[in-house]
C-alpha cells in the first residue's frame, strides 16, 4: 500500500486524493471523495447500465477502520444493461412460482424451505405433529 497525492484519471487529468492510497496498484478513495465520473455497480444498475466488461478503475472505502469497500467503474465506459426477453421473463416467473409453491399446494408470498417444501404455516404444523416443536401455552 503506497500513499499518493494525485491520481491520473482515465481522461488524462489528475485528481487530488490526499491522503490517497494505492492498494495493489488500484487507487482507493475515501467515502464521498471519488472524482466525478466514477460509479459503483449499484449506481450503474440504477441508471440501467453495466460495467460492460471493463475492469474497475478503483475502489471506495468507508465504515469503521475502512473495512467496507466497493469497486468503482468509469461511467463513460459503461454499456446499457441487457433486457430480458419475454421467454426469459416467463421462465423466471415459472421458476419463482415453483419456489413459492408449498407441498400442500398453497402458494406462499415467500420461497418455501427446501427441506420439505412447506410454507411457514404448514411447516409449523408439521413440526408440531412430528414433535420437533412444542406448542407454546397462551
UniProtKB/TrEMBL annotation:
InterPro entries, sorted: QRL_CxxC_CxxC
Protein name: Uncharacterized protein
Organism from which the protein derives: Kribbella capetownensis
Lineage: Bacteria, Bacillati, Actinomycetota, Actinomycetes, Propionibacteriales
Amino acid at each position: 500500500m503506497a500513499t499518493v497525492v494525485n491520481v491520473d484519471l482515465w481522461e488524462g487529468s489528475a485528481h487530488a486524493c490526499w491522503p490517497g492510497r494505492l492498494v495493489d496498484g488500484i487507487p482507493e478513495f475515501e467515502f464521498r471523495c471519488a472524482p466525478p465520473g466514477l460509479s459503483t455497480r449499484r449506481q450503474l444498475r440504477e441508471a440501467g447500465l453495466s460495467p460492460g466488461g471493463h475492469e474497475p478503475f478503483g475502489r471506495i472505502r468507508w465504515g469503521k477502520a475502512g473495512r467496507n469497500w466497493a469497486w468503482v467503474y468509469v461511467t463513460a465506459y459503461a454499456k446499457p444493461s441487457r433486457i430480458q426477453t419475454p421467454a426469459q421473463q416467463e421462465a423466471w416467473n415459472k421458476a419463482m412460482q415453483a419456489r413459492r409453491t408449498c407441498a400442500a399446494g398453497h402458494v406462499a408470498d415467500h420461497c418455501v424451505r427446501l427441506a420439505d417444501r412447506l410454507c411457514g404455516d404448514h411447516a409449523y404444523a408439521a413440526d408440531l405433529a412430528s414433535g420437533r416443536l412444542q406448542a407454546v401455552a397462551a
